[in-house]
Amino acid sequence: MVNNGQQQENQEEKSSFRKISKDKYILAGVITFLILALGITLGFIIEDHRYNLVEEINMQQDVKYMSIQLQYLWLGSFQNLNNCPILSATLNEAIKELSDSLSEVVAYEEEKNIADERKEIVMRRYVIDNLRYWLLAIESKQQCQMDIVPILYFYSKDCSSCPTQGTILSYYKKIFGEKVLVFPINLDLRSQEPMVDILISQFNITKDPTLIIDNKKYEGVVKKDRMKEIICSSLQDSPECQDENMGKD
Amino acid sequence: MNIFANVILWIVYVASLYFSIFLLLVYFDKKELFKTETSDLIPLNFPTVTVIIPAYNEEANILRTLKSAYEIDYPRDKIEIIVVDDGSKDKTREIITEYIKDKANCQLLYHKNRGKAASMNRALDLAKGEFFACLDADSFVDAQTLRKMLSIYYKANDPRLAIITPAMKVYKPKNLLQKVQWLEYLVIILISRISSHLDSLYVAPGPFSLYKTEIIRNIGGFDEKNIVEDQEIAYRIQKKHYKMRQCPDGYVYTTAPHRIKPFYKQRRRWYLGSILCIHKYKELVANKKYGDFGLIQMVKNIAGYIFALAGIFFAIYLFITPLWESIKSFMAVNFNLLPLIQNFNFDFRLLNFLLLDFRKGFIIIFIFIVGFFFFYAAHRNANEKMMKFGFIALIPYFAFYYVLKGIILLLSLFEFARTRKLKW
Q: Of chain B residues 128-187, which have a CB less than 8 A from chain A?
């Protein structure tokens, strides 16, 4: 017993220099917590700001769309084909607007951290906008003989070859400029937006990616060269198509 | 990103932030002490010191190492040099014999290859010094370092003080890999200095750590089965409640690997060895009896490995996977990127900026600020200029180095799991 006690004493004496910087543990914890809290608070503020921005963009589009629709109605009631150039200019501008907001909405969509109801509304509106513009583009093409290729592009988040198709589409969008109009429809929204369901059953969409060009359906990835053929056959005459052919010869 | 990955990422971020803030607090607490803490060139005593140089196939470096040991600024009759040739297959032994033939205080031991720890133990048996220092054959020591270390020892005046560790620098870094390591070692000097004041040192570096002979003999010398005997001895010292101190300006210089393969081998040994050491001394982890060493240092050591692994998985997940995806999609347009690039207009949009994950970003920014601060303080601490090698070396240091270390750790673990063998 005595021996034991002595040993313990020895042990205690040995380790007497050991300090526990308790105050620093606590202080470090408090500072960490403060930084964390500050970050999270600022995060919420920014998220709010971000949503308002997206909403603003959508509202601007609403107004633009209404304006175009009115122009269209105007056009219909006066049967004046000379108004077509005006309509085409407005449509192009609106579509450019839409593609600009695309990158923002897509990025917003990719952030999947919190089930955000507001995000869902934003996404739905974006799909509806796209469909409205697509319909408008098709009608403009038929009635005004506008030289454009409206492409309806079905994709989903889990589709592995969609990025490839996306790159090919944006490649041709860059080459053909405003002649190629891509309207992306996210198939993941089918449970939220009945319009997506209607499209799926109308075109009998089973695969992603799927493209609808001039009422024809293309399933799976459309490769670069094939894509060009399709676009060029849909366009009336385009220097980009000829250039390339001349280059090949 | 799924919830599980998110939770882990948050834990990693918050814990890293916590540890760095803790170190920062200690740093600011000791800042005044750091300013006044000086080592003297004239220690209170001039005890006998044995310098042990274990060498294995070191014909390229051994002569410089021998010279640096022989030219240590210390009374000749108080210093003894024992070179142990661990069964070298090259000309190491001839070079040593030639160098020491007319020097009375030098002797050469020779045995078949048995590893560094065994060589050390053999020399330890013969050592006459009250202290002994180990000097790896790829390193050499500043002539004044021994005096500085001894002055630290006598100033501390503590019978439980067993090891004085040096401040290790990379010798004349030439290529990028060496420069990056040079930066790393500088930061280690500062971090060790902070740890030293928390009694939390856990490595006694191979190049010129100074040991109290009696204490090392009492605890049984070096562990010959261990591949990182310099860490093992430090953990053992800590476990037995002996003390270690760093001599903040006792410089030694080591040749850092200049190619990826030797670098990988060196790190593999360190990382695996260190993991095994932590495992061996796991009872110290979060053990109050060991003060800050148990509660912070051991926990930090373990967390470091877990974070490095988590980090590498996230690097793959967040960076390499998307990179591969974009390569795949660029393949679809035959890498004809000209139209994409020509029309590429980088317009800064407020919204895109706001879309970054701000909450995590905020913490990362703080961790980086603390990191930069230590980086800056480390340069001042070691009397070096920040831009000694220009900007170029700083970029890989901050951008890839920790990923590279993570990859090495991962590869080493795979290799270990496959072969179940530990290599030097």
A: 158, 160
